[in-house]
Predict the 3D structure of the following.
Amino acid sequence: MNTCVRNIELENLACDIAISSHRTQMRKTGDLYVTHPCSVAVIVENVKESKELSSLIIASYLHDTVEDTNLKIETINNVFGSLVAELVIELTSDKNEIKRIGKTNYLINKMLNMTSWALVIKLADRYHNTLDIQNMSLNFQRKYIKETRQILEQLQQKRKLSQTHLKLIR
């Protein structure tokens, strides 16, 4: 079993930064957006054992900040270090590439090539989005469920998945 050394102070700072960065944003459900990265962090904390658990939790809090707010990757790197910054970069979507090849294909390609740690966070992200999908429009639900099924099918067929990945998929 891995020895897990947690840095609660840095985890709390990441949570505070997520709250501040996403303060004006709302989810499609009507909830404050920050509930999402906080939930992703809790899911990762509950399913993953790692000596780098604090870094994974911190990256979970910050996974949408570069994409959706004015927080810069350089700031994340300076405050939390290169591992967290690299995970956030892996979890940040390229909007131009999504337009070019479509969101589903983009996500499949991205998730097939992520590091194992980034994939844990991405699967926790996807899992959390499915938990409150009933509060969204029927059209969005159908699209999201279809997209998720396609992604998970490709992952299971084309990538070696860890026990943690499988817990998040099932």
